[in-house]
Amino acid sequence: MKDYSYPETVEQWDVFEIKLQGKSEGNPFTDYEIGGTFNYKGISTEVNGFYDGDGSYIVRYMPSFPGEHTFIIEGSFSDETYEGSFQATKAESPNNHGPVRVRGLHFEYEDGTPYYPIGTTAYVWTHQSDEMMEKTLEELSKGYFNKIRFCVHPKHYLYNLHEPVTYPYVGTPTKDTYTRESFNGGVLIGEGNDWDFTKFNPEHFRRLEKAFVELGKLGIEADLICMSPYDRWGFTEMSSEDDDLYWKYILARFSAYRNIWWSLANEYDLFLKKTVADWERYAQLILDHDPYNHLRSIHNCREMYDHNRPWITHCSMQRQDVYRHVEYTDEFKDRFKKPIVWDEIGYEGNIDQGWGNISGKELIRRSWESAMRGGYPTHGETYDVPEGILWWSHGGVLHGESQERLKFLGNILKETPGSGLKRIEGWWDEVLSTVDTPFPSGYFIHYYGFNRPCRRHFNLDENVSYHVEVIDTWEMTIEEVGIFSGTFVIDLPSKEYMAIRLKKVTD
Length: 507
What we know:
Strand order of the largest sheet: 19-18-17-14-13-23-21-20
Distance between the termini: 69 Å
CATH class of the domain at 153-263 and 272-295: Alpha Beta
């Protein structure tokens, strides 16, 4: 008798999931296969399924179109073949616009809605207690960010020396004890790890899936860091065969979630035993096993990856200099011809690490500099609070000043009459931004950063009128000054972080 169930209807771009019982002898993670073929009006999509423990197998599929979808599930996991159909309804839920796609040097959802990423980083928030995860989701529900970077594997690093709630494999962790004083900041493998890298721990991956679902409800993209060099459990030391098995497993489990982005690694160049050929092999596995073509990137510490590689959809950048970083946005756009996402430009905080002690004002300045040049910033917070819970690692509650200002910037970007911004020539003490189209847009933002002019002169076409606004990016105010044309002067308060926005008057 066929023992399986599945929903009769699923919303477009949501996850259709079918669970089946199958063989459990031996090692079901490696001994048996399961796959599905889904058909929509002659369009065929093949997906891999996965073993979820206790004799249960799962196949997931993301319907891209409303209407009837049929399927066939088969494989060595069972002696039977399973067939059925379901209806995909039109996407109507809040924040369901489909997967994010690249459009030129910017982004938009599959339904055509522009997407302007304002991200944050909380590397191991899904590895904390249920209570801490709920606190993180509550903070994220305030709408500061629409993207978050976090890891599949646990992370061993300063301020994060405790054990995670779950591990990705069946086995036991190291028996070693680590303290802040003994931590040397490098890659470290503890003694006593005993893992079976051919047997996954489904509970670990279910926690991630819960996060994907809750983030999706909030309209937040899950920028998933699939490999991290900060390790004491031996996950950076796995063989090529174990790595490939891992990639195939997470691709089968996660690909059907519309808000997934694949970040191959955080600081790939700190993996001392991985070669470029390894990273290219992982990328090919994504291309082969993700039928939905989710966004793909790789992040560096010192040595930048070749972002011209065709599998890379956008550039995940880290600041390379104490003083200049997002100012290179224009150069990188010209060099790689891809969207520039600044996933690490320094964190707001006060810890004793150079990457984690800039002020909220400096983080906002860097974020506006990036955005006005057509790039996209990512937040992080590293305050040395007494309980040692840093948002950048654990999530929880934010303590800084930048998050509300980033929400303000995000709302400014949403008002862009187009897919994104680009920098054009302006005065030498400003970043002048306009809509990234080949034709004049009639929309301009003059951003002054740490400069603080008391006024600014304009000499424009007398036949074109503009609504003029003065924006205080720190106080989060927008002052309507009036309608102007030709030659005019706009007074400013001699403060840092000011901007002037001009919007062409249309009938």
